[in-house]
Design brief:
The protein is of the alpha+beta class. It is built from 5 helices and 14 strands. The chain starts with a strand and ends with a strand.
C-alpha cells in the first residue's frame, strides 16, 4: 500500500491522499524516520493558570493536562465558572485535528506556530475537533461537551465523567468485558447525591435518537400502525426464545384444529353432494340407508368431533392470554424487552 493512501477517505470514485510529511518543518528528508525527532506544524496550547501541562514543550502535539473542568477556552466548563470539586485530566493528541497549523504564520525567521484552545468537536456538524482524547472530570456536562444525543438515558449534568473520542476506538479484553450502570438498591454519586433509579445502556449508532424523515412521514400519513420510538428496547434473548417456542406450539395446535374442521367440512360436502359416506380419519361410517333427514348417525359423529375441536380452541385461547401478558406486557414476568437498555 502506498504511504500516502488513507483507507476510508473517499469521495465518490476519487480517493483523497494525505502526505505522510504534511506539515513537516524539518529540512532533512530523513527527519522523523525510525522515530527520530521531527519538527512539524503544531499549535501552542493556551494554558490556564490552574493547569499543569506535560510535557511543557511537546514535540509531537500530544498533551496530558492536569487542571479543572474545561472543554474549550479558559472560560468554559465548571473550571471556567470557578467551581471547586471540578478537577480534570485531559489526555489529548493532535490538537486542532486535521489543521494543526491553524493560526500559525510564515515569518522571516521561519514558521511560527499559533495558539489553540481545546476543541472537543461536534458530532452533528461534522467538526471532529482535536484528533483523539480521553477526558476525565470530577464535574462536567459531558454529553454537551462531546455533542452526544440524549438517548433514553438522558444528559449527564454536573456529574463526574469519563469520555473517549477518536476516529476509531477499540476495547479489547483477554477475558470478559462488562458494561455496568448504577446500583440497585439505590447508591450515591460522586457528589453524595442519591441515585434513585437504575440507568440503562444506550447503543446509539450515528449519534441519532430520533426518527428519520421517511419514518416521520410514514407515521404522519398513517402507514405505521402505531408510533415507534427510534431508540428501542433491546430484546432479552432467553425470554424471547421461550415466547417464540410457546407461540410455535400454539400455531401448530391451531393448524391441527383448523385441519380437522376442514376435514369435517369436506365430509359434509361429500355426503350432501353425493348421498354417500366417505372415509374420515380412518372411521368408515355406514352409507345412510334412510333419507338424510332421518338417518343422523353421521351427524352425531361430526357433532362430537366439532365439540372436541371447539373445546381445544377455547383452551388454547385461555392459555394464550396470560402468555401475552407475561411476555409482551412491559409489566410481565418474562417481558421480552429490556427495561433499561436500548439501541437504534
Amino acid at each position: 500500500m502506498a504511504l500516502d493512501y488513507v483507507p476510508g477517505l473517499e469521495t465518490g470514485a476519487k480517493k483523497k491522499k494525505l502526505s505522510p510529511t504534511d506539515g513537516k518543518l524539518s529540512p532533512k528528508l530523513t527527519a522523523g524516520l525510525d522515530n527520530t525527532n521531527i519538527s512539524e506544524k503544531q499549535p501552542i496550547y493556551v494554558k490556564a493558570e490552574c493547569e499543569t501541562v506535560v510535557p511543557v514543550e511537546p514535540r509531537n502535539n500530544q498533551y496530558i493536562i492536569f487542571g479543572r473542568d474545561r472543554y474549550g477556552s479558559i472560560s468554559t466548563g465548571y473550571g471556567g465558572k470557578g467551581h471547586t470539586r471540578s478537577g480534570a485530566i485531559d489526555i489529548v493528541v493532535g490538537l486542532q485535528g486535521w489543521e494543526p497549523g491553524e493560526g500559525g504564520e510564515d515569518t522571516k525567521d521561519g514558521w511560527r506556530n499559533g495558539n489553540a484552545d481545546k476543541n472537543f468537536g461536534s458530532m452533528n456538524n461534522a467538526q471532529p475537533g482535536d484528533a483523539a482524547r480521553i477526558y476525565i472530570s470530577q464535574r462536567a456536562d459531558i454529553d454537551k461537551y462531546f455533542d452526544i444525543a440524549d438517548g433514553y438515558v438522558g444528559q449527564s449534568i454536573a456529574d463526574s465523567a469519563i469520555a473517549m473520542r477518536a476516529d476509531s476506538i477499540r476495547i479489547l479484553a483477554n477475558k470478559g468485558i462488562k458494561l455496568v450502570t448504577g446500583k440497585n438498591p439505590p447508591g450515591r454519586n460522586s457528589l453524595d447525591g442519591k441515585i434513585k433509579i437504575t440507568y440503562g445502556i444506550d447503543l446509539i449508532a450515528g449519534n441519532r435518537d430520533f426518527p428519520s424523515g421517511l419514518e416521520q412521514k410514514l407515521a404522519k400519513y398513517g402507514f405505521l400502525k402505531k408510533p415507534r420510538q427510534y431508540l428501542q428496547p433491546i430484546p432479552k434473548g432467553d425470554n424471547l426464545v421461550d415466547y417464540l417456542l410457546t407461540l410455535q406450539d400454539d400455531v401448530e395446535t391451531l393448524n391441527a384444529n383448523v385441519t380437522g374442521l376442514l376435514g369435517i367440512v369436506s365430509t359434509l360436502c361429500g355426503i350432501v353432494g353425493r348421498g354417500v359416506w366417505i372415509d374420515f380419519e380412518g372411521a368408515l361410517l355406514p352409507i345412510p340407508s334412510k333419507p338424510l333427514e332421518t338417518d343422523s348417525s353421521w351427524l352425531k359423529y361430526l357433532q362430537v368431533r366439532l365439540r372436541k375441536l371447539n373445546a381445544d380452541l377455547s383452551s388454547q385461547r385461555k392459555k394464550m392470554i396470560p402468555q401475552a401478558v407475561d411476555y409482551l406486557d412491559d409489566g410481565g414476568a418474562y417481558y421480552i424487552n429490556s427495561p433499561h437498555n436500548r439501541t437504534n
